């Protein structure tokens, strides 16, 4: 396995490269829709904190103007040890609608070869382009157990660059 630090050399926004080191912090970026799933996000945050991993979401990070995307999303995904993507669909007039922002963040995670844990309610449909991913499908009754199992696996299979 290559033990050298991976440095981000290509800005997704077309700016000069940021030079951030991948997996340089004991954090987990959680991608989720802001209008849905507060219970799930609370489970994730609690399980991560109990294991010494700082949970990070775009909602919690403040950044002015143009730097919002860079500071709140890109930088946090790059530096996170691993990521969670809560790909629950929004519901509008009885229809399920995938959350474009969450899928964009999931695409960044996958493109940057991050360890990602995708979660989705068992009752919802998986969009076609995510159907090939291993997705942790959950019900209210098993979310806590599945969260603990998946985060435990992620911690065992990842490390921060600074932990040799």
Tally of distinct domains: 1
Percent of residues in β-strands: 15-25%
The overall pLDDT average reads 85
Estimate percent helicity: 25-40%
Q: Could you list the spans in which at least 5 consecutive residues all have pLDDT below 50?
A: none
Count of discrete alpha- or pi-helical segments spanning 4 or more residues: 4
Q: How can the largest sheet be summarized?
A: 5 strands, parallel
In the sheet with the most strands, the strands line up as: 2-1-3-6-7
Give a nutshell description of this structure.
The chain has 164 residues and is α/β, with parallel strands linked by helices.
Descriptive overview:
With 164 residues, the protein is of the alpha/beta class. It has one domain (25-157): Toll/interleukin-1 receptor homology (TIR) domain (Rossmann fold), CATH 3.40.50. The chain is 32% helix and 20% strand. The protein has helices at 38-50, 67-79, 100-111, 143-157; strands spanning 25-31, 54-56, 80-86, 90-92, 95-97, 116-121, 136-138. The strands form two sheets. A five-stranded parallel beta sheet has the order 2-1-3-6-7, with helices on both faces. A two-stranded antiparallel sheet has the order 4-5. Strand 4 (90-92) and strand 5 form a beta hairpin. The longest helix has 15 residues, at 143-157. It starts with 24 loop residues before the first strand and ends in a 7-residue tail after the last helix. The mean pLDDT is 85.
């Amino acid at each position: 396995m290559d033990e050298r630090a991976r440095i981000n050399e290509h800005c997704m926004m077309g700016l000069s490269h940021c030079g951030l080191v991948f997996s340089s912090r004991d954090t987990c970026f959680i991608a989720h829709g802001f209008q849905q799933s507060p219970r799930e996000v609370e489970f994730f945050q609690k399980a991560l904190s109990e294991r010494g991993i700082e949970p990070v979401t775009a909602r919690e990070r403040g950044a002015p103007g143009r730097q919002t995307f860079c500071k709140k999303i890109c930088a946090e995904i790059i530096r996170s040890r691993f990521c969670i993507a809560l790909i629950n669909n929004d519901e509008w007039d009885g229809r399920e609608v995938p959350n474009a922002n969450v899928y964009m963040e999931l695409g960044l995670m996958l493109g940057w070869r991050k360890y990602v844990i995708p979660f989705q309610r068992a009752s919802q449909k998986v969009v076609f382009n995510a159907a090939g991913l291993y997705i942790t499908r959950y019900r209210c009754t098993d979310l806590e157990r599945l969260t603990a199992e998946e985060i435990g696996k992620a911690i065992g299979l990842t490390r921060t660059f600074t932990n040799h």
